[in-house]
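pls ignore typos typing on phone
heme C + seq
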Amino acid sequence: MNFIKAILLLLFVGVLGAAAFIYSGTYNIAADTPHWPLVFKLMETVRQTSIAAHAKDIQVPPLDDPKLIAEGAEHYSGMCTGCHLAPGMTNSEIRPGLYPQPPNLSQHVHASPAEMFWTIKHGIKMSAMPAWGTTHDDAAIWGMVAFLQKLPELTPEQYAQLTGNVAKTEEGHAHTHSHGETHDHAAASESDHTHADGDDDHDHDHDHADHADHAHAAATEAPLVLDGLKPGAVPAAETVANAFHAALQAGDRAAVLALLAPQVTITEGGHTQSRDEYAGGHLAEDIAFLKTVQSKPTSLGSMPMGDAAMVGSESEIRATVKGQPKVMRSREMLSLKRENGTWSIIAIRWESSSADAH
Ligand code: HEC
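k done
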């Protein structure tokens, strides 16, 4: 009897203690402080077992219909990238502050299609994941599930093509390119070249000052964000990026071109060029420009994406423009791909702005 009384007393004290703890406000509910490991483990387990149990009887329709995938791509790019990112995106304004952190769905997928469907439709309590089923029908949600099966394999270019973002952010240039209809753009860069061919240093400077301003204007549309990249994440890709910078700085054309894949696209100030266009024009200008300035790398980081990788970097460029010293910040995002063990650059995006303008 005494034994049972002792147990009851202990239980009572336990419940009282728990109540005192809950009402005291001791537990920190702030999103910028992690859960206690035990609480985290508990919530993680509840989430996993709950989703698995609720998704177990869901019938998965065929997910390889291109139309379904295309619809999902459109929904995803419109509603999900702020939290779950996309190829070529390293972070967003909202993501760093979320807890739990939304998984980067452009990199890997853990959940099964049925679990994804259930999660997207019903959302997850006590997290930022909304229940999209309240505003979207099942067909739309299956479209997103179908698209998510493909997403981790997409390069930034393929993603942009699928979601139509290239046409919006790059004024259609990159898009036109990929379909080989380069007429108007080719004409535009032709006139650029003739202008730059006036072989004197002033011309180059001038041309580039314009360039920087132009890039700045375009940068307000879709700024490159480099925050999520980690130094040393993909050492082999970073080595290629460093070799690329060194070759440009040294004016070694052959070494620059050796690192560029045949299908490479070079985007600067909202204009995208092919390898041949770049080799025939702006490469010479970039080399000439780098000879007249001091360029100092300020950061470099990378992110793995299967057989692809992103390498982002920033440098500070001190130049003299029309006799005035000018400090510019230049940002670069390289997409690289590994083929037969060799990394090559498949896309370059450059952006520059005056360091004082912000
Ligand atoms: C406001 C931020 C936010 C938005 C917008 C958002 N999600 Fe989420 N999502 C989350 C968070 C946070 C989690 C993780 C919750 C957790 O771990 O408890 C999550 C989890 C998921 C998961 C589960 C992933 C896994 O591996 O378990 C899927 C799938 C998902 N989201 C899909 C989507 C789709 C599709 C959209 C757009 C229609 C979307 N999310 C929009 C925040 C968001």
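The radius of gyration is 26 Å. Residues 47, 76, 79-80, 82-84, 98, 100, 102-103, 110-111, 116, 119-120, 124, 127-130, 132, 144 surround heme C (CB under 6 Å). more later
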